[in-house]
Amino acid sequence: MQTVTLNNGVKMPIIGFGVYQVPDAEECENAVYEALMAGYRLIDTASGYLNEEAVGRAIKRSGVPREDLFITTKLWVQDASYESAKLAFNKSLKKLQLDYLDLYLIHQPFGDYYGAWRAMEELYHEDKIKAIGVSNFLPDRLMDLIVHNEIVPAVNQVETHPFYHQTESATFMKEQGVQHQSWAPFAEGLNNMFGNEVLISIAAKHSKSVAQVVLRWLVQRGIVVIPKSVKKERIVENFNIFDFELSTEDIEQITALDTRKSLFLSYHDPEVAKMMGNWKVDL
User: Fold this and answer.
1) Mind listing the pLDDT tens digit for each residue in 97-128?
2) Is residue 95 part of a domain?
3) Which of 114, 172, 255, 263 sits between 20 and 30 A of 160, alpha carbons compared?
4) How far apart are CA 158 and CA 144, in angstroms?
5) Which domain holds residue 233?
């Protein structure tokens, strides 16, 4: 398994399995189980996905030794405070049937995430979490968090795909020692990604799928990826990206696809902050 080394020395698989938008318990459990059987060792979930219990059952069912796994979950906005973060962490741990987490992320840069970060630093020092990080933090908020706290986030999970490369953010994160992780590597199919002529052409040249080309492009950039699928054949296919390499020409063609903007939402928009602040989930 190819890994990256986080800023505290912890090794993280460069490819994992994500379970966003897989709320059905049985479907989620089976997908995670198939992923573990296919060789994935990083599983990425979140309290807000409402499927931590299914992930926990799949982990137990798989029989894979705990020390071989890298399990990530996330703290939702409504729990972003010192006291609530500790309660939410323990709730997630119980649902996952685990004694510790490998990575715990603040899911959104809203609410009292400073209080939450202090709680997470304490949990880290108590060895209940191997690494702590954030998700969806723009460079200014990430730097502010770094400047005013003891622990530099190990990971920042942000939207990154062929239509939104996050080039400047990637450079900034590397300078600060924060590992870049991609969510929505396939852009959730938007912009007709799987029908894109450039990506289809590159895939044909390497006798690979468009999905494999996209994932290979990301890992060649040193970005951790967490593709999602509920189909066994796709789960296996997405994992098999280490037997080919994209050329400079391939990468230049993909570079030309960058729109330099999100396909989902803008974190600069006050309405997004308002929406996130009022987004309550029955956790």
Assistant:
1) 999 999 999 999 999 999 999 999 999 999 99
2) yes
3) 114
4) 17
5) 3-277
